[in-house]
Write the structure tokens for this entry.
Amino acid sequence: MRLLLALSLTGCLQRPYPAYFPDDAATPVLTGVVYDPRTSALGGTVATLEGENLATTRTVVVGGRNAVVLESADDHVDIELPAHAITAEPMDIGLVTEDGVARLAAAVTYEHLLGDFVADERVSVGLGTVSCPIEQWGLVDGLYDTVLWCGAELGYGDASAFVGAGKQAGQAAELLGVGGLAGMPPANTVAVWGPNDRRPPDLPVQAAAAPDTDAVVIAYTPDLDVDLTYVDDALDTIYATYSWAFAITDWALVVGIVGTDSSLVETIDVAAYGPDVIELVSAAPADTAYAQLGFRFTESYEDGDEETVAFFGSVPVEADGVELLPLETSFALVHDAGTGYRFLDERLPYFGQSNVTAADYAVSLVRNGETSRVGTVTGALPLTGLYPDLMTGDVELDLGRGFEVYWDPAEDEVDPVVVVLELNVYDADVKESAGNTPLWTVRASAYDYEGFIGVPPTVLAGIPATDGTFDANYDLTGLWAELTVARHTPRVLRVANLGDAVVDFEHAVSANVFLVRP
Amino acid sequence: MMLLLHLLACFRETDDYPVKLYNTGTELDQILPPGDPMGGQIEYVRYSLFGSDLGLGHTLLFADDDRYDGLVFTVGFADFGYPVASGYDRRSSFLVPGARDVSEPLCVTRIDADGYPAVGEYVDVGDHIALTAPDGDVIRMERDPSSHADPVGASTYASWGGVLLPALTDHAYAPDTWRPNSTWALTFPGTLAPPASSIGSVPFPLEGASVTFPPPIRDLTVDGGAVRAPHHGYDDDGVYIGEDARDEVRFDGPWQSPMELAWTPSQAGTPLTVTLRLLGGELDQGDGSVVLGELTCTVPDSGSFAITPADVEMLVAGVDPAFLGGAVLLVTRMVEDTVDVPDVRTHNGLRVSISPVRTRLMDIVVTRLERP
């Protein structure tokens, strides 16, 4: 009993933590905020907080990110809104003065380029293609020459998905990892960041816990006429841009024959094709499971021939002699426990550009081993008519005059389709794996129907001309610039008891460019 | 009995090396005063991966799958919590410091990696921590998470940094990310955590604080061989000779005979921290992030230091050879200091001091050793 009393007294003698602001007399109060509702993820606009006892304001946070306090008086504080990843929900404001704290709940909402379209995004799917030139031009010892860049494939296709623990506005548009929308300025404006400037934050994500069986499954019926026309057009691009095209003496569209074990068995030339059939020059093995669609060409030189084969996608087929008949194509984006993202499984032997088309894609969710169909979305055509033509690998932009990028708007404008531009200036001698942050970044956006984006010379004033050089080993060296133009065509489906599934069809075209200042 | 043991020690055979005194114990607390209670750490490091088969795992922050021989980069990490703990003084997210203020080399041996200090509540100090040079160059360590999680209440943790930056000094356009011997301002903006969050916050900005970059490690050699970046695929003149051409930079280690380190002393006489790590894991030559044991020596800036087989005897004996994958040597110059920060406002509005906070800037050279 005495011990118990002694212990109790000991506890009483220990001081608890004191209140941080013990005097309530001058506690600040927030009553409202006035701001531009068109504020984008870049922040930067001035907002006025209204209230009482605000004269000694030291700290203001909006959605947890620090605002710059510009001016404070007893009844108001002017702040510069911080850059912020777009959230689906309005953000709270927190304020600290010398005498206390104040909060204003659900006070500020930033506007996403896609507007309310992504407000309820919970399932995010990205299907995209990246196009890049076969070669890159540059200077070696003062002479103009080329290095192999993206090769004959002229890019790649990819698909991934993300299902979050909560809403994640705009996540689908980030999944390709190139030409994303987060951090883009409002439509028809241009933003520039220099070497010492702070870039806007990435979209935060919270992965939903998911068993290994969870996946997003996508299925579509391929139109081989569309797919092989894509391949044919790619070959035309080779002829138009490849510096060694004059040496091509033989070419053909081809099919890579893939067996049931997913191994590439042989390559056979295509004799003819239509929407529902490919006719080969010779019979395919009876156990052909997939057809990888591509082309081959032969370059002839004095010291011998060089053959190139490039593939652009694959479809499951049934072989009947010289004919290949397409089957419904499907692929799954399977949950990866390490990252929380969902990546392509190995259902298709080669997922490429021709797997992302304007076809109708049926989307299903697999949860806890059970598959439920969500709906069907229509894909998108690739970006065409792009000027300047980045696929040449030798585009020059005049910093003194500014530049404009044009494209052919898509005919289908049912949903908000946006086109974005990003120019990054970087030092090729700074090794990328160490986090090669661009020195300058220029971003701009427009709606697809507008057909162009302009970047005025005033924005480019502080950017130097690039070197555009290779070293003696034909590695990039010195200052280079990379220009990416990307079109996002988002589609939305309602998922019962969950929210919206946003499927973003993106086509990005990316290439190094020369920045000159005559 | 004690006299007999002392007499036996007198007759222990030693090799003839420059006189040094060292103590090899299992914990610094056994041979030195205990660490001071502190409320957080702000660390910033330059790594030079000057050896063969080295990856990002040696930072203890990243996976080690890919090899980045020759890479030089910087990375920072910071976190804060209360109640204050001596762990923030003694531990590091990157490389555990040894003894301080030594006049002679002093080594300790640790078997198994140490954990992080346990905190009752993490503390948020704002969406970034900045190091700002007198000429305006800025290094920012961004907060993770960039904004507090929705749904609120999931905010239980905040840290800063963890992102690689290129190590740049005197670049034509980019700001410096490493500037030896210079003193930069250290700031953070302060913040207010969401009301339902269980995280504390420092509501006011940090002002008037600074950190100092250590002197560089110059002309480091091991057993007479230069510790340098490998140039795989290229000859000594920088001409590409094929991707299979290897330029090995690795050293035998002190397992059979003494390993001699030499370097150019700094003007400031800043001591070196020399660390031998035995690595485990599944990767060939060990995973840099799986530290089975390490010997940490604090060495005066004399320009030379030898590690003998006797020095590593306890380390080798303490590691199960069945798990041993490889070994590395880290040579570090370290500048440690403390900074007082504004008091924390707890999630329920109370005031707690977390001062001082440990600051630590390190220049670390990593090279490969043969395994014992």
About this structure: Residues 180 and 211 of chain B are 11 Å apart (CA to CA). Chain B touches chain A through 52 residues (CB under 8 Å). The two ends of chain B are 35 Å apart (CA to CA). Helices of chain B lie at 2-10, 28-31, 87-90, 313-318.
